[in-house]
Amino acid sequence: MEQYFPFQLSPLPYGYVSLMPHCDANTLYYHHDKYYAEAVYELNRLAVRHRLTDQSLSQLAVGDYNLPTAQLNRLKSAAGAVYNHQLYFDGISCKAGPPPFNRLTEAIASTYGSMARFQQLLTEAAESIIGSGWVWLVAEGNKGIHIATTDNNEVVPLGSVAPVLIADMWEHAYLTMDHFNKPDYVDAWFSLIDWGRAEQRYLEALASAPAGGAEYG
C-alpha cells in the first residue's frame, strides 16, 4: 500500500538476533534503527520544507520537482532510502533455507536457466556497483523479469517495473559481518529471502499488466 506523509519507520518483522549467524544484532540494529530511521526523519523534514506533504513515497522517490538540483537530489535520496529499506527489511525472512518451488522461482529458473545461475548473476551485479547502491529483481508486467542495479539511493523506474527482490549494497549492511566480501553477503542475503512475499509482489505485477502478450520465460 502506498505511503503518505508523515512517513513512519516500519518495524522489523523479526528480532535483532533472528538473523544470526547471517547478520549480527548490532549490524541489524544500526542498519534499521539508525540509518533507516534517519532517512525517515530526513524525508519528513524535507517534505515539509518543500511543501510536498501531499506526495506519496514513490512519487517523492522518482518525481521531478521544481527545486534546485542539490535540494532535489537530497529529497530523492531520502525518499529512495526509505522506499528501498522498507522493501529490503520486509523481504527478509528469519528462517534461512533454499528457495521453494512457486511461480516466481519457476519464472527465474526459466529466464536464467537455474536458481544457481540467477544467484551468480545477482552476485556479479552486486560486485559491479562502484561505491554504494542496490541490486534488484524487477518484473516488467507480462514482459518478464530482469536484474537491475541502482547507485546510491536511487530507485528503479517504478512507472514501468515492479520491484520483486532487493539487496542493500551499502557497506553498513554487510561490513561488520562480511567486511568487503560482497559474494559472502549476497549468499547470506539470498538464503534469507522471504520467497512468499517476493512471489506475492511478482503475482501482483502480473495481475496489473495490460491484457495481451505472453508472460516472459
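(the above was protein one; protein two follows)
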Amino acid sequence: MNMLNFEELKSFLDEKADRYNNPDFIDHDPIQIPHRFSLKQDIEIAGFLAATISWGNRKSIINSAEKMLAVMGNSPYDFVLNHSAKDLESLQGKSIHRTFNGEDFAYFITQFRRIYTENESLENLFLIKDQETSFLHAIERFRGGFLQAEKHRSHKHVSSPYKNSSAKRIIMFLRWMVRKDKRGVDFGIWENIDQKNLSIPLDVHTGNISRKLELIQRTQNDWKTVEELDTAIRQFDEHDPAKYDFALFGLGVTKELL
C-alpha cells in the first residue's frame, strides 16, 4: 500500500475501527468468555484467564477457556474464594491449552485468592502513576504483586515488558477492562485508569499490518515496537488509541492490504 497522507490514513483506520468495533466481533473472539458474566470480579478472572491462553487458533482458545470455566463451576469469583485444596489437586496433570497446564491454572487460582482477599478488583494492581504514559511499569508492578518472589513455572505465562516482551495478552486484557465506549465489545469497568494510556496488543498480524501502513519500522514484535506504535497511533486519537486495535485486527482478517 502506498503511504497515505496523515488525514487519509486516519480516515481509513477510523473507518475500519468503526466497522469491527461492534457486538458481532464478540462471537468469534476470546472476549466472549468474560462476556458471559455480569459480576465485575467474574469478568476480571474469566477475562484474565482467557487472555492468558490467547495464542494460536481462536476457536481452540475459546474451547480451552470453556474447560477452565467448567472446572470453576461457571462461577470464577466464587471458585477463587471458596475452592478447596482437593479442587486444585485434581488439576495436576490436566492439559488446558498448549503449554498452559493444570498446574499453571491451579497456581493462578491460588494467586487470585490472595489478591481478592486484599483487593476488591484487579484494577488496583494495574494503577498508573503520575508521569507514566503507558502500562510499562504498571504491568511490572502487577507481575510483582501477582507472581511474588518465589520462582514457579507459571511465571512464563505473565510476560515482562522489562524483558522487552510485547506483553500482547496482558495489553489485550487491559483493553477489555479499561476502554469505555458504547459499542458493547470492551467492558470499561475500571474507573481509575485512563484509556489514553492503552497500547495495541502487538502480534504477528497487527505487527505486519502496521509495517505495511508504515506506522512502525522495527521488525521485531517486542516492547520497543509497542512504544513505536504508541507514538504513531496516538497521533490519530490521543484519548482512545486502542480503538485502532479493531482496525488492525480487521485488516488482518480481511487481508485487504495483501
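Reviewer note on protein two: The chain has a mean pLDDT of 92.
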